[in-house]
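job 3f2a | input accepted
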Amino acid sequence: MAKNRRIPKRKSVVVTNTMHVGAVLGMLFVMVILNLLASSSCQQLMKAIGEDERELARLEDARMREASRWEEMKTPEKLDKALVCNGMTMRPPRPEQTVHMKADGEPYPGQVSVAKAGQRRLNVASVSAAAGGVRAVSSRATVRR
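job 3f2a | predicted structure (145 res):
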């Protein structure tokens, strides 16, 4: 039969101390692995951020170029040239083409444009009455409500 052997205290202390050192080394190993994984992840994120910043700078440069081209196209010389090329010459309105209105929708009295519009309306009414069938239009403009 086997004898009951007693484990001496010296051996149990060595095993316990070895286990503590092993646990510390194991935790150290796990922390190093986690640190390497975190470092790798941070490097990937920094690389992605750098690429996004380069893309943003490229797009900002393109926006600035397009904005300057647009501002250049809006200059009066370029605008007039483009209108002439497309057959749309434009000039500022003459005084007889401008009607200034009050807040209630009535034109201010004594304007050249209102007098000319009334004159044209009377000419159209007389021509249509002479043509025979269309009744004359009143000289007062209709107000929309």
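job 3f2a | The longest helix spans residues 9-73.
job 3f2a | closed
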